[in-house]
Amino acid sequence: METALEVYNDVEMRSPETQPIKRRKKKSKVWENFTIKNTEPGCRRAFCKGCNQSFAYSSGTKVAGTSHLKRHIDKGTCPALYHAQNNDNNNNNQLMTPYTPKSDTPRRRYRTQNSSPYVAFDQDKCRQEIAKMIIIHDYPLHMVEHPGFVSFVQSLQPQFDAVSFNNVQGDCVATYLVEKQNVMKSLEGIPGRFCLTLDFWTSKLTLGYVFLTGHFIDSDWKIQKKLLNVLMESYPESDGALSLAVANCVSEWGLEGKLFSVTFNHPASKTAVENIRPLICIKNPGILDGQLVIGNCVARTFSGLAKDVLDKGKDVIKKIRDSVKHVKTSESHEERFVELKEQLQVPSDKALALDDQTQWNTTYTMLVASSELKEVFDCLDTADPDFKQPPSTEDWRHVETLCTFLKPLFEAASTLQSTENPSAVTFFHEVWKTQSDLSRAIAGEDPYVAGIAKTMKEKVDKYWRDCSLVLAMAVVMDPRFKMKLVEFSFSKIFGEDAGKNIKTVDDGIHELFSEYMTLPSPLKPTSEGGKTDGLSDFDTYIMETTGQNLKSELDQYLDETLLPRVQEFDVLDWWKQNKLKYPTLSKMARDILSIPVSAAAFDNVFDMEPREMDEYKTSLRPETVEALICAREWLLESDASSAAAAQMSNAIVKTEA
């Protein structure tokens, strides 16, 4: 029997008839792990020294070669060799490097039960992921230098080089710049104009931070918004602070000639408003001059009204708060309260909780829940000797009055937190209805109610003076209402002066339409292949002969019958379907309906005071603060969009299946 020290030439085998077999010392490393044995006459097989598994080697004059033997060793399919390598790795704390074929030709891959995927370590990729983690979860940048974090990462990957604060700060800014390019690309080709909202934040260092968000309607007629900048203002009270922030945003994002309106929630002087106005593309010296600079954010207006209500009832509210505090801050007190509620069979399902005095909606919900449980509070002094005198009957009556005033404000402000962007049409109705209700309350006989209503109406009147034209124009662009709702509501609000105010809206909408008529006309539709239909001369003839007698798109639209007020009506989709019928008016409607009624962010519409930037972020460079906040917003939006797309794709697959 031939030993393992003898082998055929595994590079090239020749027929024994043409050339005798030459025996020589084997060069391949395969034979360090295999031995050759005769199994049958004229048949030899290669046996693995580790696992004793046999493989074909030669039969007669045919030799199988060694490629399959290499795969058995180098691909880790030999159980004995695989376990030996793992033990060596554990002892030496080293990574296993897999075999990489030198051949350029693709080879078949064999899946084995014991094989595991190998991922090459990438330091740069790890740093990118750490930067994204810090941005998305709002972690402090210094965490990368904390001993606990360094130890944790080293336990996962000893090859990872620890990064410093400066390193991760640069990585976060780099991530921001990449995402910014993606946002800029997504904003290219937006067919309409942009509206800006300025949400102002304070800080303990007397620095101001302006959050600038762009609002627009995309090519699919869906309203969108995108955080564009977070700019630090060293002197936020100056007349040029807001205008400088807007100018920087317009220049940085290329919005020259595209800015349609500006809405902000920070008290601004007349000079500050005048500084912003030249940046807006619509600058009519007449009716619309200044009307598209909206200084009264509707969320801040509602918060101001709610603050007036709460100030009027602060003494009563303190009594209710102390009563709730007694129940909620002691487990034994709460148990007695629940037992008493069950005995009295009070049907309330409202959760009793202390309010956060920085969020007026929590005070409202506390008052509502307490009012429904007033019977339990009235009897609590007998069941709980520690409980002080409960609120009186007069106190409860005042609580009900406060809730009556706060309820419509709460419902209207809650609309701003809905998943869909609220329309100006909704708030036109809410504002004029609130004004009418307050007028009736002032005329009532209850002096307590009249005092609250009078204070609130002053703020509503100011908001109406500043914003009624913008809100009314949005109503006109709704085919369910047009000028009819404006005429109806103004007659209720202004009485004898209604005609003058209605004319102001009508003149304003026509003046704005005239400006849009001067813009370049949309391209005419062509036949297939991009060729014209040969009737361009006919179109010119029609314009010359009948153009003088045709109504404008606006007048034609206003004269048509109102659409039924169906509940699920989508005004943007209606304009999308009718853009060919009203090519110019649809462009104007797109811009008007994109005007935001609030500058407050999604989660702070109930704030009693402006938001305050935390001390950690104020210690960072302004560029870093902007990078962290903007990149976080963009990354979360991207993740949400990807999740929604995946969900829709899965739904389509299930439907097709």
Automatic annotation (TrEMBL):
One of its GO terms (biological process) is post-embryonic development. Keywords: DNA-binding, Metal-binding, Nucleus, Transcription, Transcription regulation, Zinc, Zinc-finger. This is BED-type domain-containing protein. Homodimer. GO terms for molecular function: DNA binding; protein dimerization activity; zinc ion binding. Its main location: nucleus. It is found in: Nucleus. The keyword Nucleus applies. It comes from Eutrema salsugineum (Saltwater cress). Residues 25-90 form the BED-type domain. InterPro entries: hAT-like_transposase_RNase-H, HATC_C_dom, RNaseH-like_sf, Znf_BED, ZnF_BED_domain_contain, Znf_C2H2_sf. The keyword Signal does not apply. GO terms for cellular component: nucleus. It holds the Pfam family hAT-like_RNase-H. Residues 94-103 have a biased composition (Polar residues). Residues 84-113 are annotated as: Disordered.
